[in-house]
Amino acid sequence: MKTVAVIVHWGPHRPTVELARWLDGSPVIAQVAVVANDRSDRPDHLPASVAWILPPRDLGLGGGFRLASHGYPAAQAYLLIGNHVRIPDLALRACLDLLAGTNIGVVAPTLVDNDGRRSGPARLSPVLAAPKARRPPGDRPLEADWVAGTIMFVKADCLRRIPLDGRYYLGFEDVDFCYRVRDAGWSVVVSPHRAQRIGSTTVPRHGDAYYGVRNRLWFARVRGWRARAALIALATAVVVLPRAVALDMLLGHGTRTSALVLHGLLDGLSMLPPPGEARDDEPRAAHWTSWP
C-alpha cells in the first residue's frame, strides 16, 4: 500500500526533522511531506527526499493535511502524524495491514504518554468532552467513535470522499472527520499496537481556552445537535468562564484566559464559516493572547 506520511509542522525544527528522517527510512513509507504552517525555511539537515511544503498561510492541522494529500493523489494511504509522536516499525506495519480491510477508513495505534498511560476508544460526554482515562484496547483491534489527529492512518479513497474540514483550524477536526467517516459507512479502528507520545505539541496550551470552546460548539452545530450546543454554551457561561476569571485573578494574568473563553463562546455561537479552509484571520486566539 503506497503510503504518504504528512507532518504538519509548527515551531522548532528538531523534532520534525528527527521524525521525518525516521519515516523517510521506513520501507513502508513511500514519501514524507512536511507542511510548514509557520512558513519557516527548509532545514539544511532535512533529507533531500522529504518534501518541505510552504502553504500560502497557516492552514491549521486539517488544512495542512489537505494541502499535502492533494499533492500526492496517487497514494493509497496517508499517515497524519504529529512531530511529538514516535511509532515503531511493527506498529506502523500493523496499522497499515488493518487499513487494508475492505470497510476500514481510519486506523490509529494506541497512544502511550510519558507516564505510561494508554489511550484507546472513548465516547464523548454530553458536553463533548473526552474522558481523561480512555479505555485502551486489549490484544485485538476495536472500533471507535473517533481517534486523535495526533496520529491516524487514512485510506486514500476515504479521504478523497471525506476530506478533513480545515475551518476548525485547531481541535475537533479529527473528531468531525471520524464521525463523517462513520456516517459514510467506513469503520474507525484502534490497534493494540502502540505509539509513544514523547513530548507536547508546540501549540500554546492557553490557546485551548479559545479553540476548546469554539470548536466544540461548531462541531455540535455542524452535527445538528441543538440541545448539546445549548448545553455546551450554558456550561461555558456558568462554569468554564467564571473559573477562568478566578484563575486569571489568582495567577495575575489579567484577562488572558477569560478573554479567550469568552471569545470562544461568542465565535462558537456566531455564523458558521463554510467548510473547507481555515478562516483568513487564523490563529484567532492570537487576537487575545501571545502566539509563538
Question: Can you tell me about this structure?
Answer:
With 292 residues, this protein is α/β, with parallel strands linked by helices. It folds into two domains: 3-197, Spore Coat Polysaccharide Biosynthesis Protein SpsA, Chain A, CATH 3.90.550.10; 205-287, no CATH class. Helices cover 36% and strands 18% of the residues. It has eight helices and ten strands. Strands 1, 2, 3, 4, 5, 6, 7, 8, 9 and 10 form a ten-stranded mixed β-sheet that branches. Strand 1, helix 1 and strand 2 form a beta-alpha-beta unit. Helix 6 packs antiparallel against helix 7. The model has no long low-confidence stretch (mean pLDDT 92).
Features:
single chain; 292 residues; alpha/beta; Spore Coat Polysaccharide Biosynthesis Protein SpsA, Chain A; 2 domains; 10 strands; Nucleotide-diphossugar_trans; Glycosyltransferases-like; transferase; glycosyltransferase activity; glycosyltransferase
What is shown here, in short?
Helix content is about 35%, strand content about 20%.
- In the CATH scheme, the class of the largest domain would be Alpha Beta
- CATH fold group of the largest domain: Spore Coat Polysaccharide Biosynthesis Protein SpsA, Chain A
Summarize model confidence as the mean pLDDT: 92
Instruction: Give the tally of structural domains.
Output: 2
User: For the report, how would you describe the main beta sheet?
Assistant: 10 strands, mixed
Oligomeric assembly? single chain
Q: How do the SSEs run, as a string of H and E?
A: EHEEHEEHEEEEHHEHHH
Which segments are poorly predicted (pLDDT under 50) over 5 or more consecutive residues? none
Q: Rough shape?
A: globular
How widely separated are the two ends? Answer: 38 Å
The number of helical elements comes to 8
CATH architectural category of the largest domain: Alpha-Beta Complex
What fraction of the residues are assigned to beta strands by DSSP?
A: 15-25%
Protein name: Glycosyltransferases-like
Keywords: Glycosyltransferase, Transferase
Family: Belongs to the glycosyltransferase 2 family.
Pathway: Cell wall biogenesis; cell wall polysaccharide biosynthesis
